[in-house]
Amino acid sequence: MARLPRDLFDRRATLGPCKNGGVGFFAAQIALVLKLLRGVEQCRVDERRSEPPTNPARFNPTAAAEIRYSLPSHLALPEGPNRFSFHTAKLWSLPGSINGAIGSEEDPPAVPAKALATAEIVECAGKALGGDVHQDEADELKAKMLCHACVGEAYLSGEIAREGECAKCSYCGKTRRCYGVGDVAERVQVAFEQHYIRTSDQPTSWQYTLMSDRESSYDWSRDGEPITDAIANAAEIPQEAAEDIQQILEAEHDDFDSAAMGEETEFSSDSQYEEKGTSDRVWQEEWRNFESSLKTEARFFSRTAARHLASIFDGIDDLRTQSGQPLVVDAGPGTDFHSVYRARVFQSEDKLEEALCRPDIHLGSPPASVAAAGRMNARGISVFYGANDSKVAIAEVRPPVGSQVAVARFEIIRPLRLLDLTALTAVSVTGSIFDPDHAGRMERAMFLRTLSARITRPVMPDDEHFEYLATQAVADFLATESSVPIDGIIFPSVQAAGDVLNVVLFHKAARVEALALPKGTEIKARNGHMEEDGWEEDYEVIEEVPPAPKEPAAEAKPKPGWPDFAAMAAMPWEPHDPDWRDASLRVVLDSVTVHQVRRVEFKTDEFNVSRRRWEKREPDF
């Protein structure tokens, strides 16, 4: 049940102009009275006036307006009976501030021209109540028309030009495609909710401290720009149109409780706004949930994980960096990324010689039966890891001292599309704040800038089994489920510094073209030979091919009939190749080198360890 606050009555307040916010709490209480007295049995106003004194700075207690209220029986007071006859509220003011009175709609009093403060109080109270007069004004403003030519913001102007109706613009007078100002106000409201924030109308405690410091020259000013200027600048519309939109939105956001507390509401005429930063907090939380679900819930069949990855990578080929570089780059013949280096570590001479004989087999992607789990592949899934530099390729296999590393360069022989994670850090999204999806794209772009670091962060060997699950799932999704065709990923090296890159080619693009060797070829490799001064290391591969068969002299033979079963039997039989993939790589035989690991260098950050000793003491309490 509504209750009328007793401290409303016989309150004295110094009133200022309503436009400057001086009416504050007292105007709000008048609004409260008017709201509670809707359906009142009787509301009478007795007016007493006195001539203003010659000195306006002197307080005049005789200038007052007396308002008498009679509440109906269904309204209750905090104390006493449920019905009361007359209570008096006296409004005291500076001379000349109140020379009028507040009356009912049925019997409005005559208000002299000098009664500005009273009129402003009534106006503020009416706005706080969302009264009929104020709503009518808002409806009139909504009915105005705004043409696309008066809107400079490209997205909003284009939408009006496409979907608006032909009407006479209320601001330029031209007949063009228009939106109602009420419709434009709705779009402004959505845009400001997503991209702007209302700044505080009070200094912070730290700013108050500076202001109260006598030795400080700090002068506080509110952040942001006035609401009408913010609307005009965001939509690039005339100032008059911005003011109309502000009034419409202010009327829709009027809140009686906030007005009663003297609090500023959204789109208030005195409010100021500034653009707010983008946050990827939701995306980061979803990524953590994605990692956790792979580790603890479902590893192989997870619709939640698939939906999350789809939201991240769908349409990623349309994104660009700030310099215009695409996130999905072309690789292969005629491109900047046309070859990669791959290394393999060996600790026995026999296996090394075997690899030198057939680098297409032993230096390429491993067979599925021996494919170990890696950052971008699960165990048993054969992929091709490489680098754009031979030294980086060696560093990535982390060879022990005393081992030998074989390195070869592989040409990319067919067009491939690779996702460049190094470009994610500079991804940029352009668009309009009036596009409802723009905020989501900005949040996604902000998350993508951190995704490269998440995928390539160093992982300890003991943690690889769990910590590689997320990156393996990403690679599997991009290789098989992504709406964007992607053959591999370019990512920064964690083992080498500088402008060096790693690349992983997914299973579908990891096949190496077999060497063209005559049938019956025997291949031998050796790592050196004996000289007078001792053993000299000299890696060499020798191919022994059979002699070319001599073709017998052609003899005239009768033309066989069809089918010629004898000829079919003599045809060479080729075993069926179960590998359906097209070859993507070709080893460059002249590029094969062997590196003997003599020492390993590390780059570290050194920290001193301090050691202290304290005597144990029992606490006093």
Describe the structure.
The structure is a single chain. With 621 residues, this protein is of the alpha+beta class. The protein folds into three domains: 6-129, no CATH class; 145-275, no CATH class; 279-545 and 581-602, no CATH class. It contains 18 helices and 21 strands. It has a five-stranded mixed beta sheet. A hairpin with an 8-residue loop joins strand 17 (488-492) and strand 18 (501-505). It is elongated and about 110 Å long.
Walk me through the topology:
Blueprint: H1 24-36, E1 42-48, E2 64-70, E3 87-92, H2 116-129, H3 132-142, E4 145-147, H4 154-163, E5 165-168, E6 175-180, H5 181-195, E7 196-198, H6 205-212, E8 225-226, H7 227-235, H8 239-252, H9 256-260, E9 272-275, H10 281-296, H11 303-313, E10 320-321, E11 328-331, E12 339-346, H12 349-357, H13 359-362, E13 384-387, H14 390-397, E14 404-412, E15 416-420, E16 427-428, H15 438-456, H16 464-467, H17 469-480, E17 488-492, E18 501-505, E19 522-531, E20 534-544, H18 565-570, E21 585-596
Parallel strand pairs: 15-17
Antiparallel strand pairs: 1-2, 2-3, 4-6, 5-6, 7-9, 8-9, 10-16, 11-15, 12-14, 13-18, 14-21, 17-18, 19-20
Helix pairs in contact: 1-2, 3-8, 5-8, 7-8
Question: Could you say how many structural domains there are in total?
Answer: 3
- Regions with little confidence, pLDDT below 50 for 5+ residues: 1-25, 34-133
Strand content: 15-25%
Determine Rg (CA atoms, Å).
Answer: 41 Å
Class inferred from helices and paired strands: alpha+beta
